[in-house]
Amino acid sequence: MLAPLFSAPTDSNGTFTLSEARGSWLVLYFYPKDDTSGCTAEACDFRDNMNRLKRKKVRVVGVSPDSPKKHDKFKLKYELNFPLVSDEDHAICEAYGVWKEKSMYGRKYMGVERTTFIIDPKGNIAHTFAKVSVPGHVDAILATLKELGALA
């Protein structure tokens, strides 16, 4: 399945356009909110494994509904070494099917379901990790990339 195309603002006054990632493997991960415990652990795990991914020409991009300004603070605080896309109107999250009804302490609300997509060099979704559990997630991504031939 072809990954839904988008172009959106990132941290550092940048812009990320999915079509520009063609030609390389991409790990596109959606997370609920900057600077919360699970999201910080996930981002730092990507940061700490970036050399393993870059050596194989795999790119990582995070997406959340936070503003570019919040992304700037989050990226600076944790020295993140990959772009963070701002999806304030949830259009990207909706296109990827990760904007869902959630429940916490009996209260229902709409939010991002933590999900990671591996997109192949042709722009197809090669693998989806839904309802991601943070511990061990990057290792699972690396194992899947190897199975898909990206790390051969």
Q: Fill in the CATH topology.
A: Glutaredoxin
Number of DSSP helices? Answer: 5
The CATH architecture name reads: 3-Layer(aba) Sandwich
Helical amount: 25-40%
Work out the radius of gyration.
14 Å
Principal-axis shape equals globular
Low-confidence stretches: none
Number of self-contained structural domains: 1
Task: Tell me the name of the CATH class.
Answer: Alpha Beta
Overview of the molecule:
The chain has 152 residues and is α/β, with parallel strands linked by helices. It has a single domain (23-147), classed as Glutaredoxin (3-Layer(aba) Sandwich). 29% of the residues lie in helices and 29% in strands. The protein is built from 5 helices and 9 strands. The chain has helices spanning 37-48, 50-54, 68-78, 91-95, 137-147, and strands spanning 7-9, 15-17, 25-30, 58-64, 84-86, 99-104, 107-112, 115-119, 125-129. It has a 5-stranded mixed sheet with strand order 5-4-3-8-9. Strand 8 and strand 9 (125-129) form a beta hairpin. It is globular and about 45 Å long. The protein starts with 6 loop residues before the first strand and ends in a 5-residue tail after the last helix. The model has no long low-confidence stretch (mean pLDDT 94).
